[in-house]
Amino acid sequence: MGSEVHECHLVCGPPAAGKTRYARVLADRLGACLLDSDQVTERLVRAGLLLAGRDPDDRDSVAYKEAYREPVYETLFELAREHLPRGPVIIVGPFTREGGEPDGLAGLEGKVGQNVIAHFVWCDPDERKRRIEMRGETRDLPKLADWDGYLTSCREDRPCWPHRFVDTT
Fold first, then answer.
1. How many CA atoms lie within 13 A of 123 on its CB side?
2. CATH number at residue 47
3. Where are the alpha helices (DSSP H) in the chain?
4. Which of 105, 116, 149, 153 satisfies CB 3.0 to 4.6 Å to 161 for a cystine?
5. Distance (Å, whole) CA 35 – CA 2
6. Which has the closest alpha carbon to 39: 3, 75, 82?
7. Residue of 21 and 64 predicted with greater confidence
8. Quick check: 39 pLDDT over 80?
9. Are the C-beta atoms of residues 160 and 104 closer than 8 Å to each other?
10. Closest CA to 9 of 78, 97, 137, 109
11. Residue range(s) defining the domain that contains residue 21
12. 0.90 exceeded by the pTM?
């Protein structure tokens, strides 16, 4: 195997901002492996939540975040490290906590093992609500049931580290 270093892109932002759609276009353009947090781990997370007697659509509770946040992200990082020797990789996930940490990008780069090109995908909250309603995912029902409360828990701010800003409103 060669020692060529391929680009690693991180696409982050709030739910329904258009991260997956943007990442698919980017992956097609770059010929990259696309690792979307929802697609890579969704079935396992749902099974684990059911086994634990919890709501399989829970993605916002403290219990979910304590049990699944790190394993989901570590799975993405491990897959990225595995695929980077063969080509570019795009990792998609909210990464909201890291966005507020001055060393958040450096921490992500440490987990991937190389520099990361960050993309922050954002859109107006009213448009995000419309998109969430249109996609009809049961895991979004708790967000829609208390939209104003949910918005107060969402990180709307751009990451405090270098990134490409993408407004999909």
1. 16
2. 3.40.50.300
3. 19-30, 37-51, 62-64, 70-83, 96-99, 104-112, 125-135, 141-145, 147-153
4. 105
5. 22
6. 75
7. 21
8. yes
9. yes
10. 109
11. 8-167
12. no
